[in-house]
Amino acid sequence: MARGRSSKSHGLAYFGLGLLTMLTVGWLGWRGGWWPVATAPAATSPTAVSTPLAQARRALAWETHVALPEQFEPPVETGGPSQIDPSATASSFPTADRNGWRASAGGSQSSALASADTDPLEDRHLGSPEIDPLDPPAIIAGPRSLADIDRLIRSGDLAAAHRDLSWIYFQQPGQREEIAGRIERTARTIYFSPRPHILPPHTLRPGDSLAALSPRYQVGWQYLAELNGVTPNRIRAGQSLKVIRGPFRVVVDLSEFSLLVRTDTEYVCRFRIGIGRDHSTPIGRFRVLRKVPDPQYTDPSGRVIPARAPDNPLGRHWIDLGEGYGIHGTNQPQSIGRAESRGCVRMRNADVAKLFGMLVTGCEVVIHR
Fold this sequence. Notes:
Elements: H1 2-31, H2 47-50, H3 52-62, H4 107-114, H5 146-155, H6 158-171, H7 176-192, E1 202-203, H8 210-217, H9 221-228, E2 240-241, E3 249-253, E4 258-262, E5 267-276, E6 284-287, E7 290-293, E8 297-298, E9 304-305, E10 317-322, E11 325-328, E12 339-341, E13 345-347, H10 349-358, E14 364-368
Helix pairs in contact: 5-6, 6-7, 8-9, 9-10
């Protein structure tokens, strides 16, 4: 009898030990993500939730929204009945009519743009998207003479000097070459150095981030980081940052192979670009629909070229304007200043990285000849 009771107790002990082992293995498997479950497993380390790459992977896996400032930024909201929500439509570019996308070398479009009494940025012609323009910029009463502007620069009043130089640049284009050195220096100091000139510095509060400041000031968070020389995840409460109020606007001049960044009233910077062959770059008003870092490329034959591949013609950045058109980098820097693309605007990789950081979705892009 004693031997029978001992065998029974040993059997119960083995059974309990086996059950405990199964429960332990099952729990470890659930925590480690070995078993398919209906909900996402709990995070196991702070690193898993802090990196944009990990956030993007979980967003794709569980089909939930994850804020990823590097690609998804809130649209610019400036109010007013003329504003277009870029997320409400797949593209800002209209359906092609019988004349197609391309602007003819002659005809009404060219003659209208060539007219001295017509502002090419306000001209609406075939192929231009039906987007209402922004409110016309306020024009200052200036300008001062160049001697007065030089005195302002010497006295350190760069903001006033730059306002006057911008007036000359936009209202008296014949003097652009004469003021080129001055306006580049003042623009570089005001828009690309950490010393505040226009707005007072922004003092960070607990919980602030560059991604949160981006929609408030309507500029890209990458631009704010570069402007202040800071690393986004190392800013701290109480720190003062230089801020610039956007949104920036882009004006592409196909005849000059140039891309100008400006505010409503001031010059910001200018880049050399490449454009489409045979007038294939569309003319009109667009909005930045999205910004894609490290885009892949599908060529006309359907071959997919992965991101960062040496033969990827888009480079590291894609600024989407809709209908397959965009502003991007290039693996052919010698094509800058030429009409060799299939219709997109090409930039040097360093230049498009700078522009990519400055713009937010919704920014206006005007393309003209």
